[in-house]
Design a protein that fits this description.
The protein has about 425 residues and is α+β, with helices and mostly antiparallel strands. It has three domains: about 170 residues, no CATH class; about 70 residues, no CATH class; about 120 residues. Helix content is about 45%, strand content about 20%. It is built from nine helices and 19 strands. The strands form six sheets. A five-stranded antiparallel β-sheet has the order 1-17-3-13-14, with no helix packed on it. It comes from Chromobacterium violaceum. Keywords: Bacterial flagellum, Cell projection, Cilium, Coiled coil, Flagellum, Secreted. It is found in: Secreted; Bacterial flagellum. Its main location: secreted.
Length: about 425
């Protein structure tokens, strides 16, 4: 059957080759998508809006940069921090709680809270004989995940239930809205919860929710969190305590270089994948191999309407040069020099209102390659058709082999039967002759 199996083996080998080609095209697709992602910030100019932020007093707060912003120094004056509402319950009626697991007389089957304007119910008793205690109320509230943290605190022989909003600020404060023997005074004292009440001490240990109150360069700001994201563009400020400090933003050349290097690395990955395809599975696929040519054509074309002698019209004039092996290389010093010479020209080099910037044209080219009718998807479709053809052929060949094998087995069985009959007859004849 080895000879008969040869066509099937050859078809399987071709299918393996096609699947390898499909994998290679898939890798190219991924690297082109990564290049497209790297181009996004370049075309908009956001890659240049990278700053480093410092705070004058680390004990007052911390800063981190996001995106956007502008250089400058900002005076921050914090009047008060944002706080979350906290209620402390330390009595049943007028009696202190000495056993957190003891049943609470008159406790309801459920209690309801309002958090962020939404009413949510916590079931305390699923069955009539379930015990409702300080500890079970604590556990049920925490398990409900409704934006309220509960904790049981021991002070000597006395136990207290402390409820607090997970998030700070007025918008995140909770309110008790339902449950037998449950009420909300709206303040720090006078509330009840499932027959639990507050002593005068518990009232002083409770607190109202509040927003952070601060000014930035004299402009008043109210924030529901101590992580303030809207006070200074491009900066998140973590407030630690009331007081004054300054936040300074300055250009981050290392951050800009990182953004540019991400583009260079993504471009070089595409070139590397094209080269691997050229020497491997897609050696004869001209359309795939043309990817490098199309990208290099973009590199060779200056920004329309820009004088390459007196301005910056090529990437190489901003420190991004084409190497002999087809890859790009970033010269950070040359880029910094170009920025000092004419920052707006560098911005225009990557993206502009006429959509003739390098990042914009690269993006247009890559979009075409990744389009459903582009080189990547059409190549995938062609290869998948070849794989499907081989799969159908293999099914047909296997069916023929199975039929041939069954036929040979039947012939072999019949031959064995004939040989056995002949051997039996020969033995009988031999015995007959021997007996005479």
């Amino acid at each position: 059957m080895a000879i008969e199996r040869r066509p099937l083996n050859e078809s399987q080998q071709r299918a393996d080759q096609y699947n390898t080609q499909l994998s290679t095209v898939g890798k190219l697709s991924s690297s082109l998508s990564a290049l497209q992602t790297a181009l996004t910030g370049l075309s908009s100019g956001r890659f240049l809006q990278v700053f480093k932020a410092t705070v004058s007093d680390a004990s007052m707060g911390a800063v981190s940069t996001t995106s956007g912003g502008s250089s400058g120094t900002y005076q921050i004056d914090v009047k008060n921090l944002a706080t979350s509402r906290q209620l402390v319950f330390d009595q049943v009626g007028t009696s202190t709680i000495t056993d957190p697991k003891a049943a609470i007389s008159g406790a309801p089957d459920s209690i309801s809270f309002q958090v962020n304007g939404k009413t949510q119910t916590v079931t305390l008793r699923s069955k009539p004989d379930d015990v409702v205690s300080l500890q079970t109320i604590n556990d049920k509230i925490n398990a409900a995940g409704i934006g309220i943290n509960a904790s049981v605190v021991q002070n000597g022989s006395q136990y207290k239930l402390v409820l607090g909003s997970v998030e700070s600020g007025l918008d995140n404060q909770f309110k008790i809205v339902a449950g037998s023997n449950s009420s909300d005074s709206g303040g720090t004292s006078g509330s009840t919860l499932a027959s639990l009440s507050q002593s005068a001490t518990a009232g002083t240990e409770s607190r109202d929710a509040s927003n952070a109150s601060l000014t930035v360069n004299g402009v008043a700001i109210s924030a529901g969190s101590n992580k303030v994201t809207s006070a200074v563009a491009g900066v998140e400020i973590d407030l630690y305590k009331a007081g004054s400090f300054t936040v300074s933003l300055s250009p981050d050349s290392a951050g800009v270089a990182k953004n540019l290097q991400s583009f260079v690395d993504a471009y070089n990955q595409v070139i590397g994948d094209v080269k691997a395809a050229r020497s491997g599975a897609l050696k004869g696929n001209a359309s795939i191999l043309d990817i490098q040519g199309k990208l290099q054509q973009v590199l060779a074309t200056p920004v329309a309407g820009v004088d390459p002698v007196n301005s910056i019209a090529y990437l190489s004039q901003a420190g991004i040069s084409l190497q002999k092996d087809g890859t790009l290389k970033l010269d950070q010093t040359a880029f910094n020099d170009a920025m000092k010479k004419d920052k707006q020209a560098v911005v225009n080099l990557f993206g502009n209102a006429s959509n003739t910037g390098f990042a914009q044209r690269f993006n247009l080219e890559v979009n075409g390659m990744l389009d459903p009718k582009g080189v990547i998807e059409t190549s995938k479709a062609t290869i998948r058709t070849k794989v499907s053809t081989e799969t159908q052929l293999q099914s047909s060949l296997q069916s023929r082999l199975d039929t041939k094998q069954a036929q040979l087995i039947r012939q072999y069985t019949a031959l064995n039967k004939t040989l056995a009959e002949m051997q039996s007859g020969s033995s009988s004849l031999f015995n007959l002759i021997s007996s005479k």
